[in-house]
Specification:
alpha+beta; Lipocalin; 2 domains
Length: 145
Amino acid sequence: MKTVKDVIIKITGIVFLFSVLTACDKQENEKASKSKTELISSGNWYFTAYTETQNGTTTDVFTSMLTCHKDNYYVFRADGSGEFNYGVQKCNGDPQSIPYIWVFTDNEAKVKLDNGNTYIINELTEDKLELVLPGTISHTLTFSH
């Protein structure tokens, strides 16, 4: 025979489980509802990988980059302004930062910088940005926060 205490424990467990499941669902919905502008302008994007592909051969460029270039990062602001920053370990003669203007193109499938380069957005999440500069030599730049 079930006691009142047993029933209360079961109800408490069900309420707890329901609240956990709905909280997770709410967090997933909030992540999914962020616009590309909110995602790209959410902070500093640090280099984590850089490859070049030519004639089907991909070369890891990041591993051979100077250390002073590996801490460089991009900032995309929601107003369309941005900044390329050389980070803490600047190479000799580099300015600390270079401002730029950016805009989404092709229904937010690409991002164009005011230097004329248009990058295909391969991936854009809260934690990862992967851009591809197509051409005879294709450049793939990967960033994270």
